[in-house]
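step: validate -> pass
step: tokenize input -> pass
step: predict -> running
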Amino acid sequence: MRTLELFSGAGGLALGLKQAGFDHVQLVEFNKQACNTLRKNFDPNTVFEGDIKDFDFASISNIDFVAGGPPCQPFSLAGKHKADLDNRDMFPFAVEAIKALRPKGFLFENVKGLLRKSFSSYFEYILLRLKYPTQTTNTDQWEEDLERLRKIDVNPGIPAEYDVKFKLLNTADFGVPQKRERVIIVGIRSDLNCSWAFPDPTHSKNLLQICQQNGEYWEGHGLTNVDSYFDGQKRHIQTSQLKLFPHSVKPWRTVRDCLKKQPHPNDNHNIAGHEFRDGARIYPGHTGSYIDEPAKTLKAGVHGVPGGENMIRYVDGKVRYFTVFEGKLLQTFPHDYEITGAWGEGMRQIGNAVPVRLAKILGTSIYSTISENKDIEGGRLKPTLQSPKANTHL
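step: predict -> pass
step: emit ->
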């Protein structure tokens, strides 16, 4: 399935979609070091290093799918919260890609902050633009354009161009050893008549708690007489309660689960990016990630410096920084995936990435749904339709 990816970063979304069967024609990324990472792990000829404003959508054709993670800083809870007033807001270019290429579908990812009440009108505007990409105007006053799109949306004579769904997902619910909440927006072109829904979670917080409290988790790690500090208290739960969960659902994966087979950074090893970094400490608001829970959200940090949460916290309260190699595993990148740059730059790329496992789960579900459409031919989708002429009158 021929795919264009925008704002590719370190390639977590791209790799997950590739594993799901998508074929990337172009990876567009502005950051030089991230582009170096992409070239190390993908066909270098597919990497476009430059500003999305300079990318010519007319230079590619027959694109079946568009994906990407528009910069999150305008909406991040840790940012300046300027939304559309932030010159890093790239959602208009994501919409422009859909308008120009008319793909079968798209997937965009962004931070939980996008759902803040103060951004609600602008988020509605984003969704309506994606739903009616050829119906928008060129006005710089998005509030006026929003009112126009609202009228279109209730006009039965103007069908939606894309069926757009969004959902806040916690990556830990899908087997990623990290509590990372992200807004996922998926659209399927309406004329395909495809019915798609977000996949069900594969992992459970409650099941992890039960397995820790009945001892199964600790025994699995060869530990004995360990009191669980999960939720701050030890509770006796019968193993029979495990029967409440479907066999397909597994416990949340923890930092210990993820790193149990990996050497300590100070051990003798030949693992690139697994060097010990001194100076980690706890301070208010930065307490690290408990080893027996999924990691807290790995962060890119302000001005490219990873925040104090990028630390592992042991049972005795001691902390140390995650290495780039460990951060890569917590984001479910393969062991041999190469992240370029020094520790700070590597962690910045990792903190900005989409976990590979989540991308693969979503991509597999979307690919299967679109492929069921009769428009599939010879293992590849038929060329996309030309963009219909926008209806400029209400």
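step: describe -> The CA atoms of residues 11 and 38 lie 6 Å apart.
step: cleanup -> pass
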